[in-house]
Amino acid sequence: MNMLPIFSSIIIFGVYSAINGQESLTSSKVYTVISIFNLIAVPMRLVIMTVITFMNAKASLERVDHFFGYEERSLEGIDFNDSELQVGDIQFNDCLFQWENEEVKNHFKEGEKLKPKQG
Predict the structure, then answer these.
(1) For residues 56 and 26, what is the distance between their CA atoms, to the nearest angstrom?
(2) Contacts of 38 (CB under 8 A, 6+ apart)
C-alpha cells in the first residue's frame, strides 16, 4: 500500500517515455510529476483503506443479515419480575432447545453427532 505512489510514478514515466520518446522526458517534468504524486499519496492510501473497510463491513453485514431475517419469538411464559433472581441472572426451567431452521440442520453431515467434552 505504501509503494502505490512509487509504482504509479514508474508506470506513468514508462508510458510517457514509450509514447513520446525519452527525449521529451525532462527533469522539470519529472520533478513536477513526483511532487504531484507526493501530494496525492495520502488520498490514494485513503481510497485503498476505504475500499478494504467497505469490503469488511459488507462481509460482516452479510453474516449478521442472516439472523435479522428470523421471525420474532413470543415473550409468553417469561417472568420478568422473579424476586429470586438478581440483576443479570438467567434461569431456565423445563426447557427444550432445538434448531428450527433447515439450513442449520443441514449444516452438520447426516449421521454426525456432537460429541460431549471429555474430562
Answers:
(1) 43
(2) 5
CA distances from 58 to 51, 67, 70 (A): 10, 15, 20
pTM of the model: 0.44
Q: Are 40 and 5 in contact (CB under 8 A)?
A: yes
The grid coordinates of residue 87 equal 440483576
- pLDDT 10s per residue in the chain (119 long)? 567 777 888 888 889 889 988 888 888 988 888 888 888 888 888 898 999 999 999 999 988 887 777 777 777 777 777 778 788 788 777 777 766 666 556 655 555 554 454 54
Residue 37 one-letter amino acid: F
